[in-house]
Amino acid sequence: MHTNDNPAASTPPAGDIHDPAEAIVRAAESALTVRRRYQFFVWTQSYLSRLLPHQLAVCGAYDRASRELVFDVFNSVSLEPVLMDALGDARSLLMQHWQACWLEARGKPAVLQTADLAFASLGTVRDALLAAQFRTVLVHGVSRPQRPQEIESFFVFAAQDDTALAALAGRLELLLPHIHGAWQRVQAVERDVVGISAPQPTPIRVGGVTQREREILGWLREGKSNQQIADELGISALTVKNHVQKILRKLGAANRAQAVAQAMTLQLLDRTPAAPLPRSRAMP
C-alpha cells in the first residue's frame, strides 16, 4: 500500500482544523478517494473522528445477493465476543431494534440509550455495551427514495464520551452522504476485486506476517502501548517495538492505524480480541 497516493490515509496534523465547516469540506473531499475497506477505516480514524469522535463504528450496506444488510464492525476498544456477534449480524435483535428506532425517527439521526434495551433477550448484549462504556449510540442511515422501510445503508457510532456524541446528531446529518457514498464505493470495488480473483484460503503467513506479528496486530487494534503488549506477552517493550517496525514495513503502513486497517483487509485479525499467551509459552 502506497499511502502517499491516498489522501484518506493521511491524518491531518493535530490542531490544524479549527472550523467545523472547513473540517466537513476536508472530510468530504478525502472521502472521494476511499475505495477499499482499509482506506475507509483510516478515513474514519482521521478525518471523520475529528468531527464525530467514536470508538465503535458499525457500517451496513444492503447486499443484493443475500437480500439483507451486511455489517462490518470497526472498533478501537476491546469488545466482548457476544457483542461483536450481535453487531455483525443483520438478523440479531440488537441490530433489528436499532433499525426500527431509526425508522421511527423518520430517517433522522437517532440518539439511543443503552439502558433502554429492556428486552430480556438483550440483557447480555446490553451489559456488554455498558461494560465497554457505550451508554449512548448514534444511528443513521439511507433508505430507498419513496420506500423508507428499504434501508440501503445503516451506521452506528458509539463513544465512551457519550455526552459529546449525543450533541453531534446534526453533524452526522451533514456527514451522512459522504459516509454512505464512501461505504457504497468500498462495497462495489471489493465485489469487483473478488470477482476478478477466485477466493484463496488464507495461509498461516500472509505477506510474510508471522503468527506472533498477528498477535501483536490484535493488541494494536485494541490500542495497547508497546509496554502493555510486552506485559501481555511476557516479552520486552523493545522486542515489541521491533515487531511493530517489521509489521509496518511488511504491510506498507506509515503508522499503527494504517497497519491495523491493512491487516483487517487482509483478514489477518480475528473478530474477537487477541488473547494473551500463557507466560510460560511466550517467546520473543
TrEMBL record:
It holds the Pfam family GerE. SUPFAM superfamilies: C-terminal effector domain of the bipartite response regulators. The keyword Transcription applies. Residues 202-267 form the HTH luxR-type domain. Signal peptide: none annotated. The keyword Transcription regulation applies. SMART domains: HTH_LUXR (SM00421). This is Response regulator transcription factor.
